[in-house]
Design a protein that fits this description.
The chain is 19% helix and 31% strand. It is of the alpha/beta class. Helix 2 runs parallel beside helix 3. Bound molecules: ligand EVA.
Length: 605
């Protein structure tokens, strides 16, 4: 069990949540001596920076953008006197990749992992009816003992530099919202829901965890605010007659209210929007509410101009509008858990999410997708440090599932992206993480991982763990691109025939395929990087997808162009976007719109 509750901040009868977003004091610790110099009591300088945001793209200095090490944030917060006797927490949506939190000079907590929330219990450290100083040290160094994997090197001039084993810029800092919370002593800590649909009705199985022994009551309200069901107790069932199901693009949300009661007195009240739906894999089908669904959509990133990986409410809105416009019904949170607000929006808009933990770069190479295409193998899981990585990975899975399990939009867990799977050493590692996800999720959602190019039917030792086989394939880009595209198609079909021959009775989806395309480049005849080639490439891949009945989804790489480490393979970032980084369509967007709007939701059902 996790140390602190992961529930999203709410203000209710019994709870208070105050946003600490805004400008914070900021200091880059170039010498790494902040601790010794007493920064916990206050940081030097008078620079300020927005929270939430990545720190990298505000400044004009390359040394700041590329900085690897500690950065420090500070702000004052007022804690109201009437909160005395309550439990007081600081809640960080994320701190990338690790953080230490100090309040009034005292170290309260630390957290490892840059894409999931954590709380600091500051009850005993705050002054009431007074101002309090919060200082946070955030470190962004990459290692092979935490996810995402990479290394931190030291250049001849003594500066540290991050070397990611993954293809997105190592944005970091306080990239998500920070809240100050006051909770009653006895509060709702966590809850699990599971659904059963029986004809027109539904049964909700619930299990509520609180920090005390008082009685628990639940009430469920429909969209008109009418009570649809109620129950007493920490565990049990609630019957919903004539249930409105949560469906793709037609998301019906109920409001669940959980109370802790002392007679008539409400000790705590927590509420959340929920959706009644089931998700299941059967033979080669993905079933939502018992009906087949074909996934159309994207691998995405949290990435935009100026704020980098920082959560931006406007960018989120634009992205959902574009996804609706193009006829998508799903996306994968490549390559890390996204901001919680994005899942809330997907719940509301009826999008299906494959929720990915930040286990990317478990393949020792700076350009793994390239090297895997050329057949490179590495025994990543044979490292001496693998047990430490496994521990961090398992903790991240626990945090992910605890955070996201009650979103109707979340239909599957992606436990790794493109790990090394050709060596036997991967097998026990996979066994543990797949078992853990199964154990933690009361809905037993399907689990998957994205297979890299060299994880093939005859080389991959781990695909059997997946409930949905998810392929990242670049035939026609990294393999036989341009005029050789007919050869690419041949190899692609050869691979799919080999999978077919295995007769796995599992659904296959593509979690990546795509071609880098410069948004302004037109070429007749086509060449690679032109808009014409992106369309040619899509016509080829779509033809392959439509030739196999067991292929049950296509999520193109990527929704939008995004920032990466600089290098000879990337032109100011990865250009495989169907939209530009500024969220305008490339030509291929119209091709996909045509296709996706024409495919029924139950295509190949
Ligand atoms: C690419 N290929 O080469 C993508 C990467 C992605 O951006 C991959 O999973 O295989 C990776 O992160 O464009």
């Amino acid at each position: 069990m996790l140390e602190n509750s992961m529930l999203y901040p709410k203000t209710t009868v019994s709870r208070r949540s105050v946003s600490l977003d805004g400008m914070w004091k900021f200091w880059i610790d170039e010498t790494g001596t902040g601790e010794k110099e007493g920064f916990a009591d206050g940081i030097p300088g008078n620079d300020t920076i927005p929270v939430p945001a990545s720190f990298q793209d505000f400044y004009t200095k390359k040394e700041i953008r590329e900085f690897a090490g500690d950065v420090w944030y500070e702000r004052e917060m007022f804690v109201p006197g009437e909160w005395e006797g309550k439990e007081v927490f600081l809640r960080f949506g994320a701190a990338t990749h690790r953080a230490e939190v100090y309040v009034n000079g005292r170290k309260i907590t630390e957290h490892e992992g840059g894409f999931l929330p954590f709380c600091a219990d500051i009850t005993g450290a705050v002054h009431y009816n007074a101002s309090n100083k919060v200082v946070v040290k955030v470190n962004n160094e990459l290692t092979v003992t935490n996810i995402p994997c990479g290394e931190t090197i030291v250049l001849p001039d003594g500066k540290k530099m991050n070397k990611p084993y993954f293809d997105f810029f190592n944005y970091s800092g306080l990239q998500r919202s920070v809240y100050l919370l006051a909770l009653p002593k006895e509060y709702v800590f966590d809850f699990d829901l599971n659904y059963e649909i029986t004809g027109k009705d539904a049964v909700i199985h619930f299990h509520i965890q609180t920090t005390g022994e008082h009685e628990v009551a639940l009430a469920l309200y429909d969209e008109k605010g009418r009570q649809a069901a109620s129950a007493m107790g920490k565990s049990g069932i609630m019957k919903v007659e004539n249930a409105h199901l949560w469906r793709v693009h037609n998301a019906y949300l109920y409001r669940l209210v959980i109370y802790i009661l002392d007679g008539d007195v409400i000790i705590d009240e927590y509420e959340q929007e929920i959706g009644i739906r089931t998700i299941q894999v059967k033979d080669t089908s993905i079933l939502l509410n018992g009906e087949p669904v074909y996934l159309k959509g994207f691998g995405k990133h949290e990435d935009s101009d100026i704020v980098g990986r920082g959560f931006h409410i406007g960018v989120m809105k634009r992205d959902f509008e574009l996804m609706k416009w193009i006829g998508a019904n799903s996306f994968r949170t490549a390559h890390y858990p996204y901001s919680e607000e994005i899942y809330q929006m997907a719940d509301r808009e009826g999008f299906l999410i494959i929720d990915e933990v930040a286990a990317v770069g478990l393949f020792e190479s700076l350009m793994n997708f390239m090297e895997a295409s050329s057949g490179k193998k590495s025994a990543f899981f044979k490292k001496e440090t693998t047990p430490i990585l496994l521990k961090a990975h398992k903790k991240a899975i626990e945090e992910l599932i605890t955070r996201d399990k009650n979103h109707p939009s979340v239909i599957a867990w992606s436990l790794l992206n493109e790990p090394e799977t050709t060596d036997e050493a991967a097998v026990p590692y996979f066994e543990e993480i797949f078992a853990l996800a199964h154990e933690l999720d009361s809905q037993k959602r399907p689990r998957t991982f994205a297979l890299i190019m060299n994880s093939l039917p005859n080389t991959c030792k781990c695909y059997q763990f997946s409930d949905i086989i998810a392929l990242n394939r670049y035939y026609g880009w990294y393999v036989k691109g341009g005029y050789e595209i007919s050869e690419a198609e041949h190899l692609f079909r050869q691979e799919m025939d080999a999978w077919k021959a295995l007769d796995l009775h599992k659904p296959f989806i593509f979690t990546e395929y795509g071609a880098d395309t410069l948004g302004l480049e037109h070429k007749l005849p086509s060449v690679m990087w032109s808009q014409e080639y992106q369309e040619e490439y899509l016509n080829m891949t779509n033809g392959v997808f439509d030739s196999y009945d067991f292929i049950k989804g296509e999520q193109i790489w990527n929704f939008a162009d995004f920032q990466t480490t600089e290098g000879i393979l990337r032109v100011d970032g990865n250009k495989k976007g169907i939209f530009t980084r500024q969220r305008q369509p490339k030509d291929a967007a119209y091709l996909l719109r045509n296709r996706w709007r024409g495919l029924p939701e139950n295509f190949k059902g």
